[in-house]
Design goal:
The chain has one domain: Galactose-binding domain-like (Jelly Rolls, Sandwich), CATH 2.60.120. The protein has helices spanning 7-21, 169-172, and strands at 26-28, 37-38, 51-57, 67-74, 80-90, 97-104, 113-121, 126-129, 134-135, 140-147, 151-153, 156-158, 176-185, 197-208. It is globular, with a radius of gyration of 20 Å. It is built from two helices and 14 strands, in the order αββββββββββββαββ. The strands form three sheets. Strands 1, 3, 4, 6, 10 and 14 form a six-stranded antiparallel sheet that branches. The protein starts with 6 loop residues before the first helix and ends with a strand. Helix content is 9%, strand content 43%.
């Protein structure tokens, strides 16, 4: 006896199967709390890390009504950074992009502040950084975005991320331990220095999809 299955039923079966494997979009918009994003304890003891505190603020937002306000104290005459991280094991296999919005107030320094996303992954807790940082603009929200897709070539892995051998994104994407938003004051004395900036930077609308 032949079994006849209509095309609509086949489509429904396919969609149900696909949705079972589809990855759920992650969105951190900080409307209620920090959702686990904090300045890590270790950063307070690093001479080149200048984050002072974080709090949820309604002063600026790129999505909804609030964001994470990060108080910074960049001296301006050395390379320095502020990191805000989410410490949680997560499998990002199957996701395609990650992005975060960052706002520098109008009183911020011109030209030397930039942001990038960093992963810490694998049993070795490897640091895997965005290959190219995104410059911040005074008085504007800037989206920091990178692809999670990788491509293997004869020269090695091609992607938006740095990392050789065990530090490649493709080898650690299933075992991410931390996601970090890092704000960098890219001073390089004596030729590239700027003014001190003691004030806030805002982070909002972190999306993984």
């Amino acid at each position: 006896m032949k079994l006849h299955i209509s095309i609509p039923i086949i489509i429904l079966i396919f969609l149900a199967t696909f949705s079972a494997f589809a990855q759920e979009r992650m969105h951190f918009d900080f409307e209620v709390d920090d959702e686990g994003w904090k300045i890590p304890d270790w950063a307070y003891y690093q001479n080149d890390h200048k984050g002072l505190s974080t709090e949820i603020s309604s002063e600026e937002a790129s999505s909804g009504n609030s964001s994470i306000k990060v108080e910074c104290d960049f001296p301006g005459n050395i390379w320095a950074a502020v990191v805000v991280e989410r410490l949680k094991d997560i499998n990002l296999s199957g996701f395609e992009t990650i992005s975060a919005d960052v706002y520098l107030p109008k009183k911020g320094p011109r030209g030397l502040l930039q942001a990038r996303i960093v992963f810490v992954g694998g049993e070795g807790w490897h640091w895997i950084e965005m290959r190219e940082p995104v410059p911040l603009k005074r008085g504007k929200w800037v989206t920091v975005k990178a692809s999670l897709k990788t491509q293997e070539t004869e020269e090695g892995e091609q992607s938006d991320w740095t990392g050789r051998r065990q530090k490649r994104l493709s080898l650690n994407i299933h075992d991410i331990r931390k996601i970090i938003i890092r704000i960098e004051y890219d001073a390089a004395p004596p030729y590239r220095i700027g003014s001190r900036y003691k004030g806030p930077i805002y982070i909002d609308n972190i999306i993984i999809e």
